[in-house]
C-alpha cells in the first residue's frame, strides 16, 4: 500500500531501525524495490531525483511507482529526492506523491528555514510529509580539505533551530558521507550524530550511504538514523550484471532477457540493505 513517509519513519524511530530509500527512474528498478520489500516483509521508500523526473517524465514515473506501491502488500512511500526547485515539489504534490524533500541546504540558514517552512505548510495541508537538509552532503568527486569537510557538517544547534522553526518531519544531516562511489573509506562523525539525535529526537536521514561499510551503517542505525538513501550501489549492481551478461552472450537481443537478470541483481543489493537497516520483518 502507498503510505506517507512519516507513517513509516515514526514507527522506525520508535522501534529503532531504518527504512531504505532507494532511487528509481524506470520500471525495472521500481519492480526490484517493490519485490525486494515484499520478499523481506519490509517497508520501503521509493525516491526519484529531479534528474530522474527529467529522464522518465513526472506523469510516467508517478504512474509506475504509485501503481506498484498501491498493489504491494507492504507499506511504501513515494518521495522526491533533493527537490531544489519549488515548482518540482509542487508538481509532485499534484501527482499524488506522499513525501517530498525540499533541499535548500545550499542557501544560508535563515533562507533555508524560510523556503522549507513554506513547503511544510503547503505539503502538510495536503497530508504529505517533508524532508529537508541542513549541512552540505557533497559528492565523492568534490575535492574538499579537512577544514572544508568539517565546515560542511551539520551543526547540532543549527539543526535544532531548523527543526523547531520549520516543522519538518525528518531531517537529512551531514556527518561525513558523500554521494557517489567512495575513493577511500568514509569516516563518519558518530559523536555529532548522537548529539543531534539527543537534541532533536526526530527521524534522522543519512544520504550518500552506498559504499559505507556494514558496521558503520549498523552503528548509525543504532544511534538514531531512520531513513537511509541508496542509489549508487543499485546502479553499480545493474551495470555490472549488464556488462557480464552481454559479454557472455553475444546472441541475446530480447530486452526482457537482458533486463530481467539485471533486476535480480538490483533486488539482491536492496534485500541486503534491508537486512542491514533492520527493516526486515517490520511490515
Ligand atoms: O542524490 C543523488 C542521487 O543519487 C540522485 O542522483 O541526480 O544522478 O539522479 P541523480
Ligand atoms: P549514494 O550515491 O551513496 O547511493 O547516495 C544516494 C543519495 O543520497 C540519494 O539522495
Ligand atoms: Zn542524497
TrEMBL record:
<feature type="binding site">
    <location>
        <position position="82"/>
    </location>
    <ligand>
        <name>Zn(2+) 1</name>
    </ligand>
</feature>
<keyword id="KW-0862">Zinc</keyword>
<feature type="binding site">
    <location>
        <position position="103"/>
    </location>
    <ligand>
        <name>Zn(2+) 2</name>
    </ligand>
</feature>
<dbReference type="InterPro" id="IPR000771">
    <property type="entry name" value="FBA_II"/>
</dbReference>
<feature type="active site" description="Proton donor">
    <location>
        <position position="81"/>
    </location>
</feature>
<feature type="binding site">
    <location>
        <position position="180"/>
    </location>
    <ligand>
        <name>dihydroxyacetone phosphate</name>
    </ligand>
</feature>
<feature type="binding site">
    <location>
        <begin position="229"/>
        <end position="232"/>
    </location>
    <ligand>
        <name>dihydroxyacetone phosphate</name>
    </ligand>
</feature>
<keyword id="KW-0456">Lyase</keyword>
<feature type="binding site">
    <location>
        <position position="133"/>
    </location>
    <ligand>
        <name>Zn(2+) 2</name>
    </ligand>
</feature>
<dbReference type="InterPro" id="IPR011289">
    <property type="entry name" value="Fruc_bis_ald_class-2"/>
</dbReference>
<dbReference type="Pfam" id="PF01116">
    <property type="entry name" value="F_bP_aldolase"/>
</dbReference>
<feature type="binding site">
    <location>
        <begin position="208"/>
        <end position="210"/>
    </location>
    <ligand>
        <name>dihydroxyacetone phosphate</name>
    </ligand>
</feature>
<dbReference type="GO" id="GO:0008270">
    <property type="term" value="F:zinc ion binding"/>
</dbReference>
<dbReference type="GO" id="GO:0030388">
    <property type="term" value="P:fructose 1,6-bisphosphate metabolic process"/>
</dbReference>
<dbReference type="GO" id="GO:0006096">
    <property type="term" value="P:glycolytic process"/>
</dbReference>
<dbReference type="GO" id="GO:0004332">
    <property type="term" value="F:fructose-bisphosphate aldolase activity"/>
</dbReference>
<feature type="binding site">
    <location>
        <position position="179"/>
    </location>
    <ligand>
        <name>Zn(2+) 1</name>
    </ligand>
</feature>
<feature type="binding site">
    <location>
        <position position="207"/>
    </location>
    <ligand>
        <name>Zn(2+) 1</name>
    </ligand>
</feature>
<protein>
    <submittedName>
        <fullName>Fructose-1,6-bisphosphate aldolase</fullName>
    </submittedName>
</protein>
<keyword id="KW-0479">Metal-binding</keyword>
<dbReference type="InterPro" id="IPR050246">
    <property type="entry name" value="Class_II_FBP_aldolase"/>
</dbReference>
<dbReference type="InterPro" id="IPR013785">
    <property type="entry name" value="Aldolase_TIM"/>
</dbReference>
